[in-house]
Amino acid sequence: MVRRRATGTLENAMRRWGFHRVAGCDEVGRGCLAGSVVAAAVILAPDRSIPGVRDSKMTTPSERARLYEAITRRALAWAVASASVEEIDDINIHQASLLAMRRAVLAIAPLPDLVLVDAFRIPLLTIPQRAVPHGDRQCSAIAAASIIAKVTRDREMLGHHTVDPRYGYDRHKGYGTPAHLAAMALHGYSPIHRRSFRPSSLFDTMGDTRSPAGE
Question: Please, what's the largest Cα pairwise distance for the chain?
């Protein structure tokens, strides 16, 4: 995988058009079987470079920790928000992801002039916005948001692991790894599992098509 650094080219272009507080927004946790979906919005300072900012998926845990500290110290503004497991099950993961992103953007004070969003437009957002395909790989503000969201969510999952270590959240952070599926087959769904997610491989592990234990 090419570890390409994200740049501020798009943000700088938007500033030349008169948008001074340009936020990047991204979310993490869409594909997980457990835990909330977490979003972040970040406004980077154009005169405070943060070396190494790139898509969170292209960083190691130690790199993300270092970048998290740098971004939260040097950004003009940032905010984190989430949508709960209950909201995911109620409105579906896509809508819950958009809800978390809207909450993150609206938590920044004062509000941004423009929001650059990874891949999607955020509904019911009155602030000007632009959807950027693969934005977390090319736009520094969106990449910074992906790092903030990822570190925040990973820490949240570590907290869940402390409370209930049976599922191994410290290792897979809620994603559907074989070890996670095996733990679900053994212990059933926990309070933080998404009931609307029904991986067929889990039922294969159980040997039939019943719902996991506890359902």
Answer: 60
